[in-house]
Specification:
The structure holds two protein chains of two kinds.
Chain A: H1 4-31, H2 37-56, H3 60-77, H4 85-106, H5 113-127, H6 163-173, E1 183-189, H7 191-195, H8 200-208, E2 211-218, E3 236-243, H9 247-253, E4 261-267, H10 274-277, H11 310-315, H12 327-332, H13 357-361, H14 376-402, H15 409-433, E5 434-436, H16 438-455, E6 459-464, E7 469-471, H17 472-493, H18 497-502, E8 509-518, E9 521-528, H19 535-544, H20 556-561, H21 584-593, E10 597-603, E11 607-615, E12 620-628, E13 631-636, E14 640-645, E15 651-653, E16 659-663, E17 666-672, H22 673-676, E18 690-695, E19 701-706, E20 708-716, H23 721-724, E21 730-735, E22 741-745, H24 747-753
Parallel strand pairs in A: 6-8, 13-22, 17-19
Antiparallel strand pairs in A: 1-3, 1-4, 2-3, 5-7, 8-9, 9-11, 10-11, 12-13, 12-20, 14-18, 15-16, 16-17, 18-19, 21-22
Chain B: H1 3-6, E1 8-12, H2 16-28, E2 33-37, H3 40-49, E3 54-58, H4 66-75, E4 83-88, H5 93-102, E5 106-109, H6 114-125
Parallel strand pairs in B: 1-2, 1-3, 3-4, 4-5
Helix pairs in contact in B: 3-4, 4-5
Chain lengths: ~775, ~130
């Protein structure tokens, strides 16, 4: 990224995304009935800015499209075009196309013209009649006499073109040479000064230490860059020094470079009479004493800035009011703040040879908001390191325990603090990766529009909790499952307009997407106000496809969950949306790989809600460390609702291989983890067995039998799938404090695959 | 010493891309004294702290557009004489006429080549 143009180009695309987001927000607001002029303006400006930037990078297709779009929006803005739902729909479509164009342009690609042409045609039709023949305005540039070189009457921004200020400035310089004022020092190093290793900056600093110095560097003799030679000395400094010291003291500063520079020291003018050159009182920011900067002119007398540190004085322009006591100039003088006051010409700015850098460096703050853009790789590296830190901390804690140092108060409390800090660091790092779901939700807006028009339904998307933040990776990987579910909601969930009206609902269907934080997890809900799941049909379909035995008595929730079975699709006719071979089982798997769970709630006639519950991060989890046989395993704490120790009679067999446990008033299927994972043979007696009660999102529960609970702690998730593929029942692995590797279980997967709990018989998922 | 060494320019644009592009172009002319602002109020603040000879401002900005900025500059005693170059996506009559009335020194239509920017500036301040 050394090429500045490439850098600007990259930032353009980032900016485009922000603008597109703004455009989408604006269109959404208009869709909600907002007709505020500023809302339309924001949309217009977004498109306009994209066009402007694209033009600079020669992205012709993007420019051309943005132009047509912008023209139509301009007509809306000017009130020449009324916003109708049709026009808004078109604008939304344009926004989507613009998004695609920007995406493609980033990779130096273009969109197929036949995707653009019909939209462009519609846009042009909107404003066809509005086209007006503009005649070129006869605009003649107004020149500005800057009068810069040599005279440089630039003062606080109004000097140019303002003869009075310039004259004033020169008038002030006229008071020089009466021998009572500050010293005027001209210092020109000879080449030997540099070759002998002297540094002018140190001399200037030493000089400034004698009193109040105003230092200007002039490079009038500076040739073009191509003619630079390291063997020549080009710079001359002019210092106005207000000091109590005498000339000898000044010469002393230059003692070591005697013969290596040309040095002139003169006694300059006394402080000028402020009344004589005072600016008009109304010129609030006028500067009474702009400096002369040419080699021929004598610098003006210094401003007695009281007690200003040398560095600041050097940076400050010699513009401060000469006599602070005089009322008028004081009012007009800039505040003597440490920030460089209006420095006039660059040559007077700083003792450093590159004064130009100074004003530029301070230029940014107005524009900068308090964010930085960081390469994702760097953050991931940090995340990894924090993961290592967590492991390391656990190891240390274990070593301390092993060495029996736990009783030492200092070590114990130090370790506690270390643990707390580790967790804080971890949370902070995870927050860096977190992003609001807004961008994801906005993309879904587009999916709704496209799906709805694809099946000829009128659908609006309502979003809530857009500011909810989740790990960036989770957001990225949610896009596909969410897209599929939104399509399903539009395609299958919502009825057609006639059916809706007949049912007493508004013709327009509603899909709501919400995100919220709930007990350490993020819950995303996709709900529609459609007809709800047709359970009779779902069961029939499942039977037809041989997924379940016929005539089974299934609960509502069990029927709903049939949707997640592989190969299940209720779409009796294959629409353009579904029929892509992607079913809800794929969605479920995708969510599960994110450590998430998905559940359905449906009410006939009122709609269906899918809830996805996700961990905040993919990097760590709070786990319960358990022992099964000789193995140590980790069960995600979020899956465990309680732990119990079985008493005699708590469990009972309901089949040759099926045991249930009575937990208060309900029966919960019992799964012996050791048997399930092949670590041990089934035990004969469950009395005294330790049980983890697993509660799933859909309300189903199971009792996992383990040999012992060892610990409860945060573990770093190390993915296994890259090396081993998906292992049923296993989510990932982790490294424990003693360096041992432990598998992290995936309870839902485990339960779904558990013997006696085959997918085809969800009936057993819960026996109540 | 050339004009470009002394000329102080403030670039105002709400898009950081545009600020970057214009700054880049100005630097390529050898102008080193460039400050930037992201909007009109920011520009006025910046100019009060650090005066400039010339303002190169975008027209289309949220809140205060380029011409509103020009008007504010012309009304300020300290800034009324500053040069003003308006960069606009469309130079329609209305903008140019209002600009002219407000004392706009020159304008430039986007997209522009680096040379166009130089020309537009030189038409105001003379050879860089």
């Amino acid at each position: 990224m050394s090429d500045p143009m490439q850098e600007i180009r990259a930032s353009f695309f980032v900016e485009c995304e922000e603008l597109l987001e703004g455009l989408n927000d604006g269109l959404q607001a208009m869709d909600d009935g907002d007709r505020d002029a500023e809302t339309i303006n924001v949309c217009f400006r977004a498109v306009h800015s994209i066009k402007g930037g694209a033009g600079a990078f020669g992205l012709d297709q993007l420019v051309a499209f943005a132009h047509v779009f912008e023209t139509a929006m301009d007509a809306v803005r000017d009130g020449k075009l009324e916003v109708t739902p049709e026009i808004l729909a078109l604008f939304f479509q344009c926004g989507d196309l613009l998004y695609d164009l920007v995406r493609l342009a980033r990779d130096d690609q273009e969109l197929e013209e036949d995707r653009l042409a019909p939209v462009v045609e519609q846009l042009e039709a909107l404003v066809e009649t509005e086209e007006e023949a503009e005649e070129a305005v006869d605009f003649k540039p107004m020149t500005l006499s800057l009068d810069l070189p040599g005279l440089a009457p630039l003062d606080a921004g109004d000097g140019e073109g303002d003869g009075a200020a310039g004259d004033e400035a020169r008038g002030e310089n006229a008071g020089e040479g009466d021998g009572t004022g500050p010293f005027e020092i001209t210092f020109t190093p000879l080449p030997d000064l540099y070759t002998s290793g002297n540094e002018p900056l140190f001399l200037l600093r030493a000089l400034a230490a004698l009193g109040t110095a105003q230092t200007r560097c002039s490079w009038d003799t500076t040739p073009p860059l191509a003619e630079y030679s390291s063997a020549t000395s080009l710079l001359t400094w002019q210092i106005t020094l207000e000091t109590d010291s005498d000339e000898a003291a000044i010469r002393e500063v230059f003692d070591f470079v005697d013969g290596l520079c040309t040095l002139t020291i003169t006694r300059g003018a006394g402080a000028p009479d402020p009344s004589g050159s005072a600016p008009k009182p109304d010129m609030a920011n006028d500067e009474p004493a702009p400096p002369a900067s040419g080699p021929g002119s004598t610098p003006p007398p210094p401003a007695p800035v009281p007690d200003t540190p040398p560095a600041a004085t050097a940076g400050a322009a010699p513009l401060a009011s000469p006599v602070p006591a005089a009322p008028e100039p004081e009012a007009s003088a800039p505040k003597p703040e440490p920030k460089p006051a209006p420095a006039p010409a660059p040559k007077s700015a700083a003792p450093a040879p590159k004064p130009a850098a100074q004003p530029k460096a301070e230029a940014k703050p107005a524009a900068a908001n308090a964010t930085v853009r960081v390469d994702l790789d760097r953050i991931d590296r940090l995340v990894n390191l924090v993961g290592e830190l967590v492991i390391n901390q656990a190891m240390l804690a274990q070593s301390v325990a092993a060495a029996d140092l736990g009783g030492n108060g200092a070590i114990a409390s130090g370790l506690d603090e270390f643990q707390q800090l580790t967790r804080d660091i971890q949370d902070s790092v995870m927050m860096i990766r977190a992003q609001p779901v807004k961008s994801l939700f906005q993309r879904m807006g587009r999916i709704v529009r496209e799906s709805a028009s694809g099946v000829g339904k009128s659908v609006r998307l309502t979003t809530e909790g857009e500011a909810t933040e989740i790990d960036k990776t989770v957001i990225e990987r949610l896009s596909d499952p969410l897209t599929h579910m939104i399509r399903n909601a539009v395609d299958h969930g919502l009825e057609d307009a006639d059916t809706r009206v007949a049912a007493g609902k508004p013709a327009q269907g509603n899909v709501t997407l919400t995100a919220s934080h709930r007990s350490g997890r993020v819950v995303i809900e996709i709900s529609d106000d459609g007809g709800g799941i047709n359970r009779k049909r779902v069961q029939e379909k499942a039977e037809e496809k041989g997924l379940i035995p016929p005539d089974q008595a299934l609960s509502d929730s069990e029927i709903d969950n049939l949707l997640f079975l592989p190969g299940f699709s209720t779409a009796s006719e294959i629409s353009i949306l579904s029929g892509r071979g992607v079913g809800m089982d794929v969605v479920k798997t995708a969510i599960a790989t994110l450590g998430g769970r998905i559940t359905i709630a449906s009410e006939p006639g009122a709609g269906t809600t899918f809830s996805i519950s996700l961990p905040l991060t993919l990097a760590v989890l709070d786990g319960m460390v358990v022992r099964v046989g000789s193995e140590t395993l980790v069960v995600p704490l979020s899956a465990i609702s309680e732990t119990l120790s079985l008493r005699a009679g708590d469990n009972r067999a309901i089949g040759p291989h099926t045991q249930v446990v009575q937990v208060r008033e309900t029966f919960v299927p019992l799964i012996d983890l050791g048997t399930e994972l092949g670590y041990s043979t089934p035990r004969q007696n469950y009395e005294g067995a330790i049980v983890l009660l697993i509660a799933q999102e859909d309300g189903s529960r199971a009792a996992l039998v383990v040999d012992a609970i060892e610990d409860q702690r945060q573990v770093v998730i190390k993915g296994l799938e890259e090396s081993y593929g998906h292992v049923p029942g296993v989510a990932a692995a982790t490294i424990l404090g003693d360096g041992q590797i432990a598998l992290i279980l995936d309870p839902s997967d485990l339960l779904a695959n558990a013997s006696g709990l085959s997918r085809a018989t969800p009936k057993l998922a819960e026996i109540a | 010493m050339a004009l470009r060494d002394q000329l102080r320019i403030l670039v105002v644009d709400d898009m950081s891309t545009s600020r970057g592009l214009i700054t880049q172009a100005l630097e390529s002319f050898g102008i080193g004294n460039i400050t930037t602002a992201a909007d009109g109020p920011g520009a006025l603040q910046s100019i009060a702290k650090s005066p400039v000879h010339l303002v190169v401002s975008d027209y289309n900005m949220p809140g205060m557009d380029g011409l509103a900025l020009l008007q504010a500059l012309r009304q300020g005693a300290a800034t009324q004489g500053v040069g003003f170059l308006l960069v606009t996506g469309r130079a329609d009559n209305d903008i140019l006429q209002r600009g002219q009335q407000l004392g706009m020194n020159n304008y430039l239509t986007k997209p522009f080549e680096t040379a166009d920017l130089k020309g537009a500036i030189e038409a105001i301040v003379g050879r860089l």
